[in-house]
Design a protein that fits this description.
Blueprint: H1 2-8, H2 13-45, H3 50-99, H4 102-108, H5 110-135, H6 137-152, H7 154-201, H8 203-208, H9 212-237, H10 240-264, H11 270-311, H12 336-341, H13 347-350, E1 361-368, E2 378-385, E3 390-395, H14 401-406, E4 416-421, E5 424-425, H15 431-437, E6 438-441, E7 450-451, H16 452-456, H17 465-474, H18 478-482, E8 491-492, H19 501-513, E9 519-523, H20 531-550, E10 557-561, H21 565-568, E11 573-578, E12 581-586, H22 588-594, H23 596-604, E13 628-630, E14 633-634, H24 637-643
Parallel strand pairs: 3-10, 3-11, 6-9, 9-10
Antiparallel strand pairs: 1-2, 1-4, 4-5, 7-8, 11-12, 13-14
Helix pairs in contact: 2-3, 2-5, 2-6, 2-11, 3-5, 5-7, 5-11, 6-7, 6-11, 7-9, 7-10, 7-11, 10-11, 17-19, 22-23
Amino acid sequence: MFKLLKRFGGSYRANLVLGPLCKLIEVVFDLFTPIIVAYMIDAGVGTRSVQPVLTGGGILLAMAAVAILFALACQKMASRASQGMGTSIRHSLYEHINALSHADLDRFGTPSLTTRITNDVNQVQLAIALGIRQLMRWPFLAVGSLVAALAIDVRLGLIFVVSMAVVGGLFWFVMKACIPYYRSMQAKLDRIALIVREGLSGVRVVRAFVREGHERRRLADAAQDQAATAIAAGRLSSVLNPVTFLVMYLAVCAILWAGGIQVNIGGLTQGQVVAFVSYMTQALLSIVYVANLVVVFTKASASAARVNEVLACQPSVTDEGAEPVELWGSAGLPDAAEQADGGGLPDAAKQAGASKRVPTLALRNVSFAYPGAAADAVHDATLTLMPGQTLGVIGGTGSGKSTLVSLIPRLYDATEGAVEVLGRDVRAWQLKQLRQVVGMVPQQAMLVSGTIRSNLIWRDAKATDDDLWRALELAQAAEFVRALADGLDAPVEAGGKNFSGGQRQRLTIARALVGAPKLLILDDSASALDYKTDAALRVALASYGRDAAASGELPPAVVVVSQRVASVRAADLICVMRRGNVVGLGTHDELVRTCAIYQEICASQGVEDETVSPGMRQFPPAQLSHETVSPGTTVSRHEEVRHG
C-alpha cells in the first residue's frame, strides 16, 4: 500500500496532507462538545438559568457549521486523491500489462489481471478515501476522549481504560483471525472471474454441447466456495458489535453508579458525569470504526500487494538498448554493388548464401520451452527463408507450429539459438520496428469494437483509404465490406461478433497487410475459409509479391501455418513438425519421397503423390477452376476436386 502511495501520490500530496488536517479540526470540535454540554447542564439546567443554555447552544451551532465546512473540504480532497490515484494506477497497470510478454501474461492469467485492474484497484481507492476521511478522525477521537475523561476524574477513568482494553483486545483477536480469510477471498474472486469469462466467451460451444447445467454448477461451486470464506470471516466479525456495545453499556452503568456517588458527596457535577459518559461512548465507538478500517485496509493491503506484483514484474521481452535498424538498398534489397562485395550490409547479410542476398527469416538452432515445462515446445529448428519465398509449416495438433512462429515477432524469446529477421537477431531490433516489419495474423481472429477502418489502421494510423481497400482486396474481404452500408466505417462489435468466422479471418489478414510488412505470418488464419476463397487469397498474395519485386521493392516473405496440405504444398519450403522437432524440411516433391510424417499427413487428406510445377511454386490456386496462376499455367476442374 505504501509503495503505491509513494509512486502515485506525488500529484495529490496536498490532498493527502490537508484532507486529514481538515478532519482533525472537526475532531477537535467533537472533543469540545461534551465540555460545552456539561457547562449547559451545570450552569443552566442545574441553576434553572436560560442564558447559559442559549450561549452553549449558540456555540454548538457555530462549531457544527464550521465542522461541516471542514468535513466537506476533507470529503472533496479525499475524492480527488482516491479517484485520481485510482485512475493513475489503472492507467499505469494497463500500460504495464501491455508491455509484458506472452510468457508473463501466461504466468498471471487474463482473469487474474482483469480482477487486479478492476476489483483490486477499487479496494485501494476505497482505502485511500477512508484513510483521508477516517484514519485521522477515529484514533484521534478515541485518544482525545480518553485524555479528556481522565482529566475529569482519574478513578472513573480506570473504568474507561479497562473497557477500552477489553474491546481493543477483542478486536485484535478477531481481526487477526479474519485477515487470512480476506486475503483468500481476493484469490477466489479470480476463480469466479475465470469461470464467468470462459462461460461467456464460449457460450456458443457450451450451448452446442448442452453444457449449460455443467457451467452453472461450476460457477455455483466457485461462488459457494468464495461465499463460505466470506461467511467464515463474517461469523468471526459478527461478535464484534454486540460484545462492544455490551462492554460499553456495562461501563456506562459502572460510571453512572460510581459517578452518582461522587455527585452526592460533591466530588463531581452532573454535567461532568454526562460529559464522562459521552467521552466513553465516543471512544468505544471509535474503536468499532477503527476495527472496520482495519478490515478495509486489510483487504486493500492484499489488493495492493497483487497490484504491486504486476507492476514489479519486469517484462521478459524488452528492446532496451536496441538501436533502430537501417534497411539498405531499395526498401531493403541490396543493390548490385552491395551484392558483389557485401559492402554496407550487416555481417549476417554478408554470409547469407551464394547470392549474397540477406534472408528475410533465418532460424539458427532455435529451441524454446515454456516456463515449468519438462520438454522443449520447439527444439533445434534451423531454416532460411529468402525475400519473396514462402514457408509452409505443417504438423499435427500440439506439434509446436504456433509456438515456432510466435518466436519471430518476439511474442516469446527463444531459450536457445537465434531468430533473425532481415539478417539481424530479433533481440537487436526495437520491438515497434520489428512488428512493423513482421505482420502476423494470429490463430484466433480477434477484432475490437469500433469500425472496420479503426481495426485496419492498427499497423499504420496514416494509411489512406486506397491502402485499406488494397489490403481488403488482397485478403478477399473487399466484396463483403463494399456490400455493407457504411463500408469502411461499418461498425464492429466486441470480438467482431457481427461477422462470420471467415469474414473475421479475412479482416485480420487485411489488417496485417496494411503497412506492407516484409514478412507475413499466417498462423492457421484461413481455417474458416472455404477452399475457393483460400486459394484466391494465395493467388492474390503471390501476385502481390511479384508486383513488389517488379517495382524494385523487397518482396514479402510469407510463413503459412496450416494443417491443410493444399495450403502449403506449393510453398518454396515446407517445415514438418512433430512434438516440437523439425522432422522434415524441403519442398512438397522432396517430402513426399523422404518424410514419413509428411506422407502420413498427405495420405490422411487424400493428397496424391504428384509434382508441383515451378510455375505454381508460390500460393498456387489449387482449388480454383480454370483460373490463371501465372502466364501459361492453369488449374483444371479435375485438380480442384482432387486437391479439395
